[in-house]
Fold:
Amino acid sequence: MLMTRPIRFTRFGTFYVLFALGVGAAAVNTGNNLLYLILGILLGLIVISGFLSDSALWGTVARWSPVGSLYAGEKGRMECRLQKGWFPGVAVTVESHWSGLSSQSTFAPWIPAHGSVYFRSEILPTRRGRLTLERCRYSTRFPFGFFQKSHTAPMAAQWVVYPSIHRLPSASWERQGRHFSRNASNRKGLGSVPFLLRDYRAGDPLRQVDWKTSAKRAHLMVKEMEEETDEGDLFYLDSWPSLATSLETENFISFIASLLFSVYERGRPVGLVAPGRSFWPEASRPHLHRMLEYLALVDPAADRHLKAAPLLTSRSLQNHDLVLLWRSHGR
Structure:
């Protein structure tokens, strides 16, 4: 924790100090008690200014957290909770310094004592991986604007930036593998195969009414469908390809992340088998984030010697070769 508070003279502060020195020189030369009194008041205001500005910075703590997920090449929002100790913070400027990004500055006019305020700022991560908040600088010109006092606190907080995402049409992956499963599960669900006919009950949606059968039987009949077993889409990468440039490698990783995201958005279970890691298809958001985090932190050059686990086949699982999809996508 750094306790030093550098001082920088403002333009008004420089004039004020020069004026005080001039009053002091006149008081010494003339021996005028009134000038000594004015000098004392001027110097006293400098002392009061120093005490109040220090008090406005003491105990200032910033706690940052992302609003949603962070993606490379897309603007993300960071929320900051600015807390204060025994003395309120007045006119405090918070300047955040990020690794590889430009600094962000936000002005907080008032932070209550033993309280907190919230503000949000936008950042633009340029690459996948870890985003580090290196330090925060707090500064203020309170109360008179003579000086700007500041202190810097190291942060070393990190968040994961996912690869760049582009929504892809279903044709991008359906050209490989089998069609969606049509295997029966012998239970009711949201499939396309009729399961049973029953009498209409209050609350049943009208779209499930079988109007032809209802007309024949002279009362409403509801058609329930059979659930189809479908374990989802599994994308397979046996080994990382030897791409010519780092840009091609990043584009390939972004393509994989976009496939996973696009399949998930359609409500289907999605999985990934890659060198050193395997994710069996699921349709949950935490599962998607685990795969995206793996892609955000993976180093293909370091994992070039690794091989993926053997591919498991299933009647209700669509397997996709990522290299073939990448080539057919046109890169």
Observations:
- Residues 33-57 form the longest helix (25 residues).
- The first strand starts at residue 7 and ends at 9.
